[in-house]
Design a protein that fits this description.
Length: 158
């Protein structure tokens, strides 16, 4: 009788641990082969959530952060082979922070900065070999500097 009571108390304790977990993982959609297409993970105590979308081959396609129903935080996109294509940041539904785009070889393609929905900071493009190709500065959404260009060896172009 005592062993049954101890097992029951242990079972209730384990169940209560799972019920009080702070995050929840939900498979919202599945592919025809029943592999996950969309998984939503969120904190039960917060309106923050991350949605992860998958290609049919199982590779991650996108990972998008939300606060409530607005984009908020880091969002990332991959190609079907699993190579990272881009990363973007949002704050309260607006682009905010760095947006980074990658070439097929993994090198940077473009980096731009946003502040509350407007370009603010440098926008830089890169050659395939990773050398800086061009640079221009924005302030509050408006061009603030002349564009500077470099060749693929890093020499400034006139």
């Amino acid at each position: 009788m005592l062993s049954v009571l101890i097992k029951t108390i242990g079972f209730i304790f384990v169940i209560s641990l799972f019920m009080n977990c702070s995050t929840r993982k939900l498979v919202r959609e599945r592919w025809p082969n029943y592999s996950p297409k969309v998984i939503e993970v969120h904190d039960k105590k917060s309106p923050r959530r991350v949605e992860t979308y998958y290609f049919l081959n199982g590779n991650v396609e996108t990972e998008i952060s939300y606060f409530g129903n607005k984009l908020d935080g880091l969002s990332r996109y991959w190609n079907i082979k699993g190579l990272l294509i881009s990363e973007s940041n949002y704050l309260n539904g607006l682009p905010h922070g760095f947006w980074i785009y990658y070439q097929q070889n993994g090198n940077l393609l473009k980096v731009e900065e946003y502040q509350f929905g407007q370009k603010h900071g440098y926008e830089r493009y890169y050659h395939e070999n990773g050398i800086l190709k061009s640079e221009i500065k924005y302030v509050n959404g408006k061009i603030f500097s002349q564009i500077i260009r470099w060749d693929s060896n890093g020499n400034i172009l006139q």
